[in-house]
Design brief:
The chain is of the alpha/beta class and 457 residues long. It has four domains: 126 residues, Response regulator (Rossmann fold); 179 residues, P-loop containing nucleotide triphosphate hydrolases (Rossmann fold); 75 residues, Helicase, Ruva Protein, domain 3; 57 residues, Arc Repressor Mutant, subunit A (Orthogonal Bundle). It is built from 20 helices and 14 strands. The strands form four sheets. Strands 2-1-3-4-5 form a five-stranded parallel β-sheet, sandwiched between helices. A five-stranded parallel β-sheet has the order 7-8-11-6-12. It has a two-stranded antiparallel sheet with strand order 9-10. Helix 3 links the parallel strand 3 and strand 4. Helix 13 crosses helix 15. The protein is globular. About 4% of the residues have low confidence.
Length: 457
């Protein structure tokens, strides 16, 4: 089922009304009665979320918190019967785009949803433009304060001077794109273009044309010749982000390019020379993809000539202060305003957090906090509540219980509670550590009657 608006609302009558009005205003909605169902259904295709705060089971606040790690760029509009200033402030601190109360004006509500959607599209376009612009990269060096990161940079410096294909692995948001740019800047191709393609961002038909280009008349809508990213990267670096999501039928075409160093535009007959250095990145387990037949083993070997693994941010907390200062410098520069700062307690909270969304989550957190801070200084109270309570929750979890005499259900419940505490309350991160699907942790919380601490303002 294809939909671009997720509505999470437990009142059936309101749910039907919202779905009906959403279609009138040009949306393709899908409704859910619980936050757990809504979270499980959110994909990259979803453009905006309409959310009630008071829900059975997982609350709207919990869902906003979970989205900060799993879908940090998804705009959320809160619609609730409670006209409560504290709820509004809390929702906005957790990342809500706007806050409206019932009864609502449909025109005002859907104008707000359209505005949130347009804002996300602009952000995506700007990000794609920054990543794919065909000019030499002039960014600063790669942040490396932790020993693990310093070791990685030493390896990267040696690899950069080679023209070999590099495969970057690591969790989503850990900085693989920044490392790819570092490799390009220190390579013999530094004066050439750095061209990025995000493999999961486009449907298969558009991705083929994006990579290889097409000739006029190659398919319906091909009104003129288009130069693809492979051709645009001539003399420079081609960065294929999330290569594990490359459609299976396009994998042989990429393999041929890497083997023969030539390609054809879609609908073309002329063979063109491919002159680029390939850097690919992924957060998937290739062994599982290959075993399931979703990824070609021969292509994997072509990609992983030189593998480099980027550790998650939680394993290199020494990098956090330098990353935070660089992010704030970038924000100040873009806003053309005074320098932004972090006070000592805020920095301590940042370094104590586990960062399930890695550097990307850190960037989003600082951008949000800087919008609320006073005197251009981010203080501990400006940070999201789950973040500043991480140390307290971890300490209050206590030592593990003795195992003797506990039922399997009690053991499972205790494991979930302690893992949630160690993850700062982030259910997505807790599910990852427990090795279960994100949807499963919500089901287990409900099934095992696990009572979670609800943070208050």
């Amino acid at each position: 089922m294809s939909f671009d608006l997720v509505i999470v609302e437990d009142e059936e009558v309101t749910q039907r009304l919202l779905a009906l009005k959403a279609r009138d205003f040009g949306f393709r909605p899908h409704c859910f009665g619980t936050a757990e169902e809504g979270l499980a259904a959110i994909t990259e295709e979803v453009k905006v979320l309409l959310l009630d705060l008071r829900l059975p089971g997982m609350s709207g606040f919990d869902l906003l918190e979970a989205l900060s790690g799993t879908h940090p760029g998804l705009p959320t509009v809160v619609l609730t019967a409670a006209d409560n200033a504290e709820d509004a402030v809390r929702a906005m601190k957790l990342g809500a785009f706007d806050y409206l109360t019932k009864p609502f004006d449909p025109q005002q509500l859907f104008d707000c949803l359209h505005k949130a959607t347009r804002l996300r599209e602009v952000h995506r376009e700007n990000e794609a433009l920054r990543e794919s612009i065909s000019t030499p990269v002039v960014e600063k060096g790669f942040v490396a304060e932790a020993e693990t990161t310093k070791n990685l940079v030493e390896k990267a410096m040696k690899v950069a001077t080679l023209d070999s294909t590099v495969l970057l692995t690591g969790e989503s948001g850990s900085g693989k794109g920044a490392l790819a740019r570092f490799l390009h800047r220190n390579s013999s191709r530094r004066d050439g273009p750095f061209v990025t393609v995000s493999c999961p961002a486009l449907p298969r038909e558009l991705l083929e044309s994006e990579l290889f280009g097409h000739e006029k008349g190659a398919f319906t809508g091909a009104l003129k010749r288009r130069i693809g990213k492979i051709e645009s990267a001539k003399g420079g670096t081609l960065f294929l982000d999330e290569i594990g999501d490359l459609p299976l039928d396009l994998q042989p075409k990429l393999l041929n390019v890497l083997q023969d160093r030539e390609f054809q535009r879609v609908g073309g007959e002329e063979w063109l020379k491919a002159d680029f250095r390939l850097i690919a990145a992924t957060n998937i387990n290739f062994e599982e993809k290959i075993a399931s037949g979703e990824f070609r083993e021969d292509l994997y070997y072509r990609l992983s000539v030189i593998p480099l693994e980027l550790p998650p941010l939680r394993e290199r907390p020494e990098d956090i202060p330098a990353l935070a200062h660089r992010i704030l410098q970038g924000l100040s520069s873009r806003r053309k305003g005074p320098a932004l700062k972090l006070d000592a307690p805020a920095m301590k909270a940042l370094t104590a957090f586990r960062w399930p969304g890695n550097v990307r989550q850190l960037e989003n957190t600082l951008e949000r906090a800087s919008a609320f801070c006073n005197d251009h200084t981010i203080r501990r109270t400006d940070l999201p509540r789950p973040l500043i309570e991480t140390q307290e929750r971890t300490q209050s979890a206590g030592a593990p219980l003795g195992l003797a005499g506990l039922t399997l259900a009690e053991l499972e419940a205790e494991a979930i509670k302690q893992t949630l505490a160690a993850s700062g309350g982030n259910k997505s991160e807790a599910a990852r550590r427990l090795g279960i699907a994100e949807k499963s942790i919500y089901n287990k919380i409900k099934k095992l009657n696990i009572v979670l601490e609800t943070p208050t303002l």
